[in-house]
Amino acid sequence: MAEYALILALIAIVAIIALIFLGGQVSKILSTVAIDLARRRSQVMRTAGVLPGGSSSRGSPSGEADSPPPRSSIDTSVGSLP
Q: Residue ranges of the alpha helices (H) in the chain?
């Protein structure tokens, strides 16, 4: 039974060390994926006419062009991965 505890402890240590060294890269990748999904969702919603600026006839009530959504201040550049 002690062998299983040692194996579990070793796996936990390796996982913690991997997260410490790769955590920044994983965070950048997940942020990039989240931003891309949000942009695609807004494009789909806009195309479906749910959001202003879409191809639907339900544009802004004043007939003026809708302004684009604000850009995110998050840096989406991932760089080169090892």
A: 2-47
What is the rounded CA–CA span in Å between residue 41 and residue 32? 14
51: Cα separation from own chain's centroid: 20
d(CA 13, CA 5): 12
Greater pLDDT, 53 or 1: 1
- Indicate the number of domains in the chain: 1
> Average pLDDT in the 46-75 region?
59
Residue 27 domain-assigned?
yes
User: Residue 45 belongs to what domain range?
Assistant: 20-49
pTM of the model: 0.43
Q: How far apart are CA 67 and CA 69, in angstroms?
A: 7
